[in-house]
Amino acid sequence: MGLFILRRSGVMILTALCLTFIVFFLTNLFPNLEKLAKTQGNFRMSDEAVISWLSKEGYMQPLPVKYGQWLGVLPGWTLQGDDGVTGRCIKGAVTADEAEQAKRFCGILQGDWGYSTVFKDEVSGIISTRLGLTGKLMFWVLVLMVPSALLVGVLAGMREGSVTDRALSTFSIITTATPEYVSGVVFIAVFASSAVGLKWFKGTATSAMESANFENFFLPVLTIALYGMGYIARMTRASMTEVMTAQYIRTARLKGVKFSNIVMKHALRNALIAPFTVIMLQFPWLLNGVVIVETLFNYKGFGWVLVQAASNNDIELLLAVSVVSVIVVLVTQLISDIGYVYLNPRIRIS
Amino acid sequence: MTHPTIDRKPVHWAAKMHAQEFHDGKLSRREFLTRATALGVSSAAAYGMIGLAMPTPASAQAASGGTLRVQMGVRPLKDPRTYDWSEMGNQSRGTLEYLVEYNNDGSIRGMLLDSWEINDDATQYTLNIRPGITWNNGDPFTAEDVARNIAGWCDKSMEGNSMVGRFSTIVDDATGQALDGSIEVVDDLTVRLNLPTSDISLIAGMTDYPAAIVHSSYQTDDFTQNVGTGPYLLETLEVGVKCILVRNPDHAWWGNEVYGEPKVDRIEYIDFGTDPSAWMAALESDEVDMLHETVGEFIDVLDDLGYVKSEVVTMASVVVRPNQLAEVDGMKPYADKRVRKALQMAVDNAVCLELGYGDRGKPAENHHVGYIHPEYAELPPQVVDPAAAKALMEEAGMMDFEHELMSIDDDWRKNTTDAVAAQLRDAGFKVKRTVLPGSTFWNDWTKYPFSSTNWNHRPLGVQIHALAYKSGEAWNEFGWENPEFDALLADALKLADADKRREVMAKMEALIQEEGVTIQPYWRSLYRHMREGVENADQHIAFEHHHYKWGVLS
């Protein structure tokens, strides 16, 4: 088991390295750097001015060197300018003596995530704030989605072909076939705008960033939850119907065990193995799939940061976003693999 | 106010002349007020000169205190001279104030300046600083501060410094700095500007949002720490999220005695992105009390929902322009005048106004000077002739060229650009529309080969021409370089008398039309909606937020 976790962690680090290198390569393509120089410096810079700005900011070094500096395995660049020494690990221009005092390495290995060019702030601060906000959204989505999805799935799956099954399956298929950008707009129009006039909820979740309550937070949560709910419910139903036709269930019925007892005691645990994986798979999807909902409800979380970073070629922010995404995806996969072992004794990790 | 001028000097001769022009029907009330107050006549006296009483501001009922939440894009701040958004000015205006203030009736009144005088041929400006102003760190505000800021405005070596364009008269081309002796500190409260040639637009140039007055300790690492003269402090600045201004309890603001104490304790700017439907949702959900600007169909919708509307007619506009220097596939398609003329002739401006802005404004004449500007000269109407346009384009051999017409992804600018594209297609041209999201559009706005840009209102027509149409200016997005025009502009900037200036302006307008520099379809009215109980927060002609006037009833 320990070896398995170790191996998985190794894979995770390797994946993170590969992915960040790809992102690094793409964001450091010259046209992207040129765009960065023009947004940060001056939009009417000449080509020479762009080159000089880029070299001044350390962007003209070879790609592997820059990547090494970002990782923190190579010393950060320094440059002797007119008004003092500038460098990757130095804020502003300082004297040569102060530059000597500064750290030589400042990459993510040293815990330095860099500086966001769009938000003019430390990347680590931005990521933690925004991840926290998306975490809050995800938490409430899971609280709503998982129990209701399992309930719907189990109810539908315990008597395959019954009216309950048909009705609940139809409901699940409709919700999962409706993308968030459709259901979100419909919900806002029906429950939040003056068009219908119900105005039960608020059409934006901006204030939910500071103080979430039922009125301002329910619609975004519902929009995401409904989409995932149908999917998990369908999986649970399939798994439940399979279990309900198994021989040990038939035996139990023949022995005269009450139907409720069969479902609760004998079928449920076996039927929950498949949905467990699906639920764990929802995490990475929630992290980035909420982009639409966060934009629609103007909730400034992780997805919103991703959009802002990508559209402005904010290199260090984008890299941090990818690192976090890789970790979330692989950690949830790890948990799901380990959880599997506990749920299903037939599976062993060797 | 008992004296006719703000500095107790005799009324400027030109102001009296303008009063006569008003009586002769040559000037509108707004034009008269702009010109007379720019010449140092007090607002009350200016109204008096044309036999009107100065309108008293709506009596404010709002008690002191409260929070006003405003929907507005929150942008990263930088040195004020390089500001390219009025939002930036609004974010810092609570702390960093201006020398003068432009108001919706077209008048200019003193803020940090108590008064100013301009000599007869507009070569000498005397700026009298309001006595008793202190910075919020306790330092007195003196003539040195004003001189230092004006010198900063003239610094050509500062990348993206748009104030250079407004103060180019006193900039030395050789050194890229202010001319020696042009900024003279007379005493602690007086600064004199000595101009080598006449320039009438300096005071109007000081009203613009990049002209914020900064302290000598100004830095761009932490904007919440900057010292200013204003009654508010910048408490939080989270780009793209929110910006919060709070009353500064430890600072005795100069304006308390002059314009009354500010009422609102806290102003929160909340960013709701670039989608107007999100702004409406914000207002409807009571997440904000007021919008920065209402656009397009949402004006009617919010009217119907019973929100309070504030409207101001402006010389704000949009240009759909080719860039003459832009290269597409190795050639410069818009360097050919015939191509530009053909594009212009194919487009009916009235149609753009109707489809793009719901007829809320007036059609314009493709030269960016309009009827509110004092020097506006009426030219013969433009001809719209798609057939002739097609012939011209064929003559230029560019019928097969596909024009890529870019715009930002929003409501009215996108629709207006769509209307232009549709008319170009009707004329037989190949047009590809590209709509860019707001987050990327501005990265390169002056460089796009063919795109649309919105332009704010400015008090004088020559100001816009000096900023955007003069060769080599930072905001010359047309890539237009015309020595004849530059010479005419230099002449116009010397003429304090708007009637004389109009003669030159007629030539400049004609030249811009003739060269097919741009399609400038209409002048737009600006709107803003707010909930009941927000007071004195009317839409400003140049999108400025005058926080000290605002009030809020809970």
UniProtKB/TrEMBL annotation, chain A:
Gene3D superfamilies noted in UniProt: MetI-like
Keyword match Repressor: no
Pfam families named in the record: BPD_transp_1 (PF00528)
Molecular function per GO: dipeptide transmembrane transporter activity
Keywords: Cell membrane, Membrane, Transmembrane, Transmembrane helix, Transport
SUPFAM superfamilies for the chain: MetI-like
Domain of life: Bacteria
A Gene Ontology term for the protein's cellular component: plasma membrane
Places the protein is found: Cell membrane
Annotated family: Belongs to the binding-protein-dependent transport system permease family.
Keyword Membrane in annotation: yes
TM annotation in the entry: 12-30, 137-158, 170-197, 217-234, 272-297, 317-343
Organism of this sequence: Sedimentitalea nanhaiensis
Domain annotation ABC transmembrane type-1: ranges: 131-336
Protein name stated in the entry: Peptide/nickel transport system permease protein
Membrane topology of this protein: Multi-pass membrane protein
TrEMBL record, chain B:
UniProt GO MF annotations: peptide transmembrane transporter activity
Transmembrane intervals: none
Gene3D superfamilies in the cross-refs: Dipeptide-binding Protein, Domain 3, Periplasmic binding protein-like II
InterPro entries found in the cross-reference section: Peptide/Ni-bd, SBP_5, SBP_5_dom, TAT_signal, Tudor
GO cellular component annotations of the record: ATP-binding cassette (ABC) transporter complex; outer membrane-bounded periplasmic space
Name by which UniProt lists this protein: Peptide/nickel transport system substrate-binding protein
Alphabetical keyword list: Signal, Transport
Xref: PROSITE patterns: TAT, TUDOR
Taxonomic source organism: Sedimentitalea nanhaiensis
UniProt-listed GO biological process terms: peptide transport
Subcellular location per the Swiss-Prot or TrEMBL entry: Periplasm
Pfam families assigned to the protein according to its UniProt record, in alphabetical order: SBP_bac_5
Lineage top rank: taxon: Bacteria
Coiled coil regions in record: none
Protein family (similarity comment): Belongs to the bacterial solute-binding protein 5 family.
Start and end residues of each Tudor domain: 236-293
